Amino acid sequence: MFEQCQFLLKAAIEVEDYAEAGGLQQRIDRLKSQHPIIPREERLAEAVEDGNFVLAEIFQNDLESVKTNLGLPKYVVGQAIKHQHREGVRGVVIDVDLTCTKGRQWVEGAGCLERGCALGYPGGETELSELQRWSQQPFYTVIPDLVDVDASAEKSAWRWPWPAELASWEVNLYNDVPAALYLAEDALTHDPEQESELVHPELAQLFDGHDATPYSGRTYRPAPRLLLWQQQRQQELQEARQRQKAAQIGSVNPYSRMQ
């Protein structure tokens, strides 16, 4: 509704129907005031612009709390993050999923490790129902910071401070570095380091510079290459869901096997 009113407002201004535009603007202002996210984002932006980073951090925490309650992702593409329970694991978000898009095998392998790491017990003791709940939160594809990764060995023997089960894909998209990570929201937090460079050979190709604030660290600006990759990935996920849905329908309909 909010986006539709904005579109109609633009159209009314273009034809110089200012009476209609005035009514639409009032409606937009009313919708904006009732919106759970937009006013908080505006207050946050104003605090940053004023240089009041203590207040900005308060607004940021409030915004993240509301997003969590609504089931929305806390972090955006380009946000520098770090793992709360695995020392040395940090990186930059390159894509966001509202829930886990991996299959059951990946969820069981990665989920057991992550829940065990977070709660301090052997991963094999994690119950299946707990893994199912874990997979329903937002997930992030993250290119990892490789500053401390040992690349002296062969490519197939990279030494990194995270389990291979957390890899976002089996076949690495980048020829000479480990695959991106696929991390659950409850394992992440903002990386507050403003001055600390993240090291990854694709960082300069995927992002066009960065902004930094004391309360949330660096946020990198997506470059066209990253935006194109995101579009391709979303199309692949949509096609995969359609194939899965068609397969489920076919298994239910016995006549489909006869065609």
Secondary structure layout:
Elements: H1 2-14, H2 18-34, H3 38-49, H4 53-70, E1 80-83, E2 90-97, H5 104-119, H6 128-134, E3 139-144, E4 181-184, E5 188-190, H7 203-206, E6 207-213, E7 217-222, H8 224-252
Antiparallel strand pairs: 1-2, 1-5, 2-3, 3-4, 6-7
Helix pairs in contact: 1-2, 3-4, 5-6
Summing up helix and strand content along with how strands pair, one would put the structural category as alpha+beta
Note the overall shape.
globular
Uncertain ranges: none
Radius of gyration: 22 Å
The tally of beta strands, per DSSP, is 7
Strand content: 5-15%
- Roughly what is the average pLDDT, rounded to an integer? 79
Q: Going across the major beta sheet, what is the strand order?
A: 4-3-2-1-5
* Count of alpha and pi helical runs: 8
Helix content: 40-55%
SSE order, as H and E? HHHHEEHHEEEHEEH
Major sheet: size, sense and barrel closure? 5 strands, antiparallel
End-to-end C-alpha gap: 44 Å
Provide structural commentary.
The protein has 259 residues and is an alpha+beta fold. The chain is built from 8 helices and 7 strands. It has helices at residues 2-14, 18-34, 38-49, 53-70, 104-119, 128-134, 203-206, 224-252; strands at residues 80-83, 90-97, 139-144, 181-184, 188-190, 207-213, 217-222. A hairpin with a 3-residue loop joins strand 6 (207-213) and strand 7 (217-222). The two termini are 44 Å apart.
Describe the structure using short key phrases.
259 residues, alpha+beta, 15% strand, 5-stranded antiparallel beta sheet, two-stranded antiparallel ribbon, single chain
